Request: fold
Amino acid sequence: MTDDGLIESLVAAVGRDAVLDGDDVGDDYGHDECLTVAPRRPAAVVLPRNTAEVAAVVKVAAERGTPVTARGSGTGLSGAATPPDGAIVVSFERMDAVLDLDADNHVAVVQPGLRLNELDEITAAAGLVYPVYPGEYSASLGGNVATNAGGMRAVKYGVTRHQVLGLELVLADGQVIRTGGKFVKATTGYDLTQLVIGSEGTLALVTEVTIRLYPRAPHQATVLAPFATLDQVTAAVPRIIDSGVGPLVLEYIDLLTMSATASFTGLELGIPQEIKDSALAYLVVMVEGTDPTRLDDDVAGVAEQLAELGAIDAYVLPPAAAGQLIDAREKAFWMAKANGADDIVDIVVPRAQIPDFMEKVAALAGEYEAWIAGCGHAGDGNVHLGIFCGDDERRSRLLHALFAAGVALGGAISGEHGIGEAKQAYFLELEDPTKLALMRRIKAAFDPDGILNPGTLLG
Reply:
């Protein structure tokens, strides 16, 4: 039920055309892409055009104690963009501009609703690139900040927190602050920029993001190497990194996922059947460069090294096939969803522990009578698992065991999707209680009345 007077207050703050309520609130505003958190209906959706309007909306919410959930493009996988019943959803779809592209300083200032594919087109025209490349390229910059998004290029460039230099924030009382700026280092008090990155909308609403840009390498090449075991794949990863070639992408794909990918997309990579029959895992290595001749030398060196490291063979893929493979890998979530996956998780462990973790995954799959398919960012230990286990109670116990196994190996519950609402119970049970208590005190300092995305992360 809508708080009496809420809609009128929001209309007074930002105008009738920026407020949706009643039947005008589309179903998409009540959920993200998480498979396990049910949609809810917000009291209102506000479509602000600038920071001042965001601040005005938050002030209304603060006066009434109404929950506020920020929303980018809704591609998150943890339920963090699923609003509480009766909440205000602040959708940033109208705040999607590049405010400043500073080629001399290699930075851009962007609004949170800007999508990665839109940013890529703009930066390409300037010969630059923003390197964060998560699985869904229609994701927004604000969503990237909220979850500390990573993706396949993290092995070379790092994740979102390595690319964000500053933020403009609306606090829980409607005040506006700026953190960081167009500089790459500072030792000036607490780093509030980094504190907000990955906080899933629970500390502040992001209204501007200052990001690093890099020169865009014009040439890329991809090597696909089938291996007889996953252990061989993970053993090869540090050696490829040590080689100095600086891979842009270093991904593993298990047999089940590769087979499902080929079936789902019709992808044909020209691998002989006898090789497919003996391969249990694949390593994808993409390199980039400015000089095509040097790139060819690097690719030849990678292929030779992979053979020495036990690959059954190494295939330098034609550009079109490489593009199809990378595109299919990015769409692994949609493939898993289409095939009836009951959950998707992204546990991260130290990359040298991937074989130990995957051995545990196989054992747990058998113990809980589940089917688990995997692929992931081999270069940084981020393992993505599609869980097929229809019994809710058994799946919950399986997930707890998987998360506990990852944590025991020195890892964490999520590498990039975030905790949100979906993984909250596991996070609260497995995390250090002292750390949780500190996080709650930080949350209270930013948001004393608990109106920012309640029910997410810490509960």
In short: Residues 421 and 456 are 5 Å apart (CA to CA). The chain has a mean pLDDT of 93. The first strand starts at residue 19 and ends at 21.
